[in-house]
Amino acid sequence: MGQVALWISTILCGGALVLYIVSLRSGSLTRGARVCWYVQCVVLAVAAAVLWRAILGHDYAYEYVVGYTSNDLGFWYLLSAFWAGQEGSFLLWAILTGAIGLFLIWRASDYERETMVWVALVQLCVFVLMLLKSPFAPVAGQVPSDGSGLNPLLQNPWMVIHPPLVFLGYAAMVLPFAFAMAALMKREYEGWVTRSLPWCGFAWLTLGAGIIVGGYWAYETLGWGGYWGWDPVENASLVPWLIGTALLHGLIVQKSTGSLRPLNFCLAAFSFVTVVYGTYLTRSGVLGDFSVHSFADIGAGYNACLLAFVGVPLAAWAALFLARKGEIHSDRAYENPRSLAFVLHLGIIVLLVSAGLVGIGMSSPILTGLLAKEPSAVSLSFYNVTHTPIGILVALLVLFAPVMPWRGATWASLKGDLKGPALVGLLGLLATVAGTVAYARASAGASVGVSLAKSVPWYLLIGLAATALGANLAAVVSRWRMGKRLLIGAPLAHTGLALMLMSFVGSSAYDREHKITLGLGETKAVMGYKVTHRGSEVRKDGKLQINVDVERGDHVYNGKALMYETKHGLMRTPAIQRGFLADLYVEPESVDPGDAESPHGAGSGDTVDIAKGESKKVGPYKVTFEAFDMSAHGKEGGMSVGAKLKIDVDGKTEEVTPQFVISGQETSHPPTEFDGGAATVRLMSMTVESGTVHLSFAGARIPASGSPARSGKETLLVQVTHKPMMVPLWLGCILLLTGAGVAIRRRAADASAELGRRERRGKGKQQGS
After folding, report:
1. Which of 105, 203, 266, 673 is the most buried (most CB within 10 A)?
2. pTM of the prediction?
3. Which residue, 566, 564, 559, 509, is CA-closest to 533?
């Protein structure tokens, strides 16, 4: 029934597309096109109901249900299994696109036919992909009694929210594209701006919210202490969001000055095309060797359809834009460089440079594959180095935005408006210098002078961001007091952005981490905190709960970290003590019960950090770390990085390669045997930039780290990370999205008012004739 519903929906979508195309010349078939779209949405809802019924009813006759659910999965995670896999996520995309089409039918008025042509085309592409790889494919052979289950790391409340938000953003990004194409078709190069602004803002807001929720989930679940890893697939959602940001500002400039008309048509197209291009990167398997999120390669035919999904909208836009380009004229961009128009122009350029750099970075496996024998990915330093000056420029532009009028400001007025914000910036700068000194003194062997010299770009960024925070916050307060509450959207969003920029620096440049080993009941001081191991216990769900107390002053935090084995490998969930200025992030790495092999860690044994080319003694063994191994990258849709080791065993040399495996969103550290099975080694973590790996050894001939384990006491190896400015970061994200919501409401009111004026003018002409 589900497969039949997919076929019927595809046919109805194709019918709606044809009828809307025909109705462009004559509106007589518009009603038929609407009926096709309405019925398509109903039948699509039936398909979704069939899949949800199969998931909730544990109907393992479907491959999709077997692959992403199990009998022991809770209700909410059963619901989220709907979009956990490739096929289900495309069905979700189709449902959301159908709903967007309904809103366009109801609200787009005289833009309905032209916009719906492109929405229906995109929907048809999604249907073709689902027909090639369907969520209703039957199981080959005997129906199993249980499924493989959902990724353990996806069993998190935020993952019930994050994917639908991202896919809503992806689906909504068709709106800027559809309105731009409609304007080109209607030859209305100005009127589409006001009409499309709220729709574009909605797409930007939903995709941005999805990105932020994904970052928060990664921070509190994955156990690596970060929220953004510049992964190619993470970047695939960031690029269209950056271009969408440039488009929103470009439309505002065009509405106010009449400039940037050709550029806005380009931005509207590429904000959507990059969504589809990112989908190709994610779904085709081309990033399987380089991304922790990428799906496996599932065939040349499917990949060809994905490429067509990229190429067809792009080719249609290029043909129509080039045909109309001679008719699209722009007014002078700005008269005065001390004007808001100039600031926004520069902001658009900076955003596009950022999007271009991120796009090049995420596409580097493809680009290097074309230019060299072996494809490769850029390092994280590429993004950090290129985006530090971009962050500085963004902070500078956000600083001037609330104090620059459209027609230009005088130097005297600027000095008066920036006095208060400059004081805030100075305080932020002084706090940064003090933080750098404290950081250098707290880091063993660090030179205060060297740390201060290295921190100059950070000073500049934080000082400008703090000044921008003060300027925009003052604008919010001023407009609120004047009763212009719908005008606080932009400065409120920029307040959040300034706070985020400051937090990016604080949380990444000034984080500190230490590994410590704790016996049962033992307390150790680390980074101004006292950490105590209170023992572990096996919960009812089989997960090992590790209890740690974190004490600072009079406050004691009772943290509960988790470790548990799954069919996907060893999983760990950190304990996080949250503070307004800093979090303490406690991640367990292994637990030694002291008298037996532990299923939750390395067992009795030792841990060691080894740099590339270095050798160290571990018990009776000499271990040499030679190089990273990427040969298993991308197998079965996951990512696997190995460490090539040479181990001298009683005069003989063995070569072993323990793996650090990431499948979907989960990490595991499978043991690798050596010495005839008498010992094992796990690759627990790595730092690619410094070429260092953290290894855990176990075996009868390997003494445990520290003596408590040999006396029967439980020993915990834990990594403690001090993460500054995390709460301000999340607060900045909330302010950014809230300000955007207010701005969208204002633009929707403007669009509604303009539509009302058009309707009144139309009625007046009819009455006059």
Report:
1. 203
2. 0.82
3. 559
